[in-house]
Amino acid sequence: MKILVLRPERAARRTAEALSRLGFEAVLAPVLTIEDLASPIPDGPFDAVLATSANGLRKLKERPEIAALSRAPLIAVGDRTAEAGREAGFSTVHVAEGDGRALVDEAAARFPAPARFLHAAGANRAFDVAGALAARGHATTVVELYRATAATELPEAARWALETGALGAALHHSGRIAETFVALSVEAGFAEIVKNLPHATLAPRIAQALERAGCRRIAIARRPDETALIEALQSLVA
């Protein structure tokens, strides 16, 4: 069965490997691309570095400041981000339960206020980590290390898969991915096909974007991580 994978290319290849091990064939059609941002990183010290995506840590790893920053603890949003943090040189890594709110809870539980955090972030953020921590008495410096840029037309691989009816389902790792895919698909004339296609999503807010578009078959992961997302996919297409 062919599964449409819409996340940025590097991450999409990892997803394709995981799908392949379970007998699925991934159709890679990224609707977002990752662009580096040259944002300055202020001097520390910081009590901890916060990471809501592996992309932010990969970009941080390329900066000379990583030598000093990696001496601080890292609080990662999930297992994949934690793995990227270890690869970047962090030796003390704490893992939250998979989303921005959980990361804020983890940081607040581990560090009494007022603590000083650095958030290695993207320009497009679904949740205001710094604002949530400020409400708990902490100071967070947000450094935007990358930008996820949306495609302006439906990727050719997605167009082919929708035209031929080859797809068994689509995976959605973020609300922005879901919204971009739906918008590009409607523009390309595939609105009804997308409404009837099974969709597996990482979180309820992502499912809501698909529901607004009229999609009828949606499964939501039990946890906001890729293992649970693929489990949701399996339940959807079983």
From TrEMBL:
<dbReference type="InterPro" id="IPR003754">
    <property type="entry name" value="4pyrrol_synth_uPrphyn_synth"/>
</dbReference>
<feature type="domain" description="Tetrapyrrole biosynthesis uroporphyrinogen III synthase">
    <location>
        <begin position="14"/>
        <end position="231"/>
    </location>
</feature>
<dbReference type="GO" id="GO:0033014">
    <property type="term" value="P:tetrapyrrole biosynthetic process"/>
</dbReference>
<dbReference type="InterPro" id="IPR036108">
    <property type="entry name" value="4pyrrol_syn_uPrphyn_synt_sf"/>
</dbReference>
<protein>
    <submittedName>
        <fullName>Uroporphyrinogen-III synthase</fullName>
    </submittedName>
</protein>
<dbReference type="Pfam" id="PF02602">
    <property type="entry name" value="HEM4"/>
</dbReference>
<dbReference type="GO" id="GO:0004852">
    <property type="term" value="F:uroporphyrinogen-III synthase activity"/>
</dbReference>
